């Protein structure tokens, strides 16, 4: 048989290694993200509302708090 005229077939082993998702290349590094704990929103809002509406500190800046005459 004369093999001079037959086209060469590509080497499948190289292609399969690159396309196979199970093969992990040594260049890939596992990325890790740092997680920061945040305070619970309800606790923060409750504290802000308590600071805003502290009844011990309520003062009237514009005169009497009594209703006007009808």
Descriptive overview:
Residues 1-26 are annotated as: Disordered. Residues 1-22 have a biased composition (Basic and acidic residues). With 70 residues, this protein is mostly helical. Helix content is 29%, strand content 0%. It is rod-shaped. The model has no long low-confidence stretch (mean pLDDT 68).
Keywords:
70 residues; mainly alpha; 29% helix
Give the N-terminus to C-terminus distance in angstroms: 120 Å
Helix content: 25-40%
- How large a portion of the residues is in β-strands, by DSSP E? under 5%
Characterize the main sheet: none
Q: What letter string, H or E per element, gives the SSE order?
A: HH
What do the pLDDT scores average to? Answer: 68
Number of helices: 2
Envelope shape: rod-shaped
Number of strands: 0
Radius of gyration: 38 Å
Structural class by SSE content = mainly alpha
Low-confidence stretches: none
SSE order and pairing:
Layout: H1 12-19, H2 41-52
Region (Disordered): 1-26
Biased composition (Basic and acidic residues): 1-22
Summarize the structure.
It is built from two helices and no strands. It has helices at 12-19, 41-52.
């Amino acid at each position: 048989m004369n093999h001079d005229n037959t086209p060469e077939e590509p080497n499948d082993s190289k292609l399969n290694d690159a396309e196979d998702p199970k093969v992990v290349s040594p260049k890939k590094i596992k990325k890790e993200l740092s997680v920061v704990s945040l305070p619970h929103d309800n606790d923060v809002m409750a504290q802000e509302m308590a600071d805003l509406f502290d009844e011990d500190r309520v003062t009237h800046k514009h005169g009497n708090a009594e209703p006007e005459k009808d």
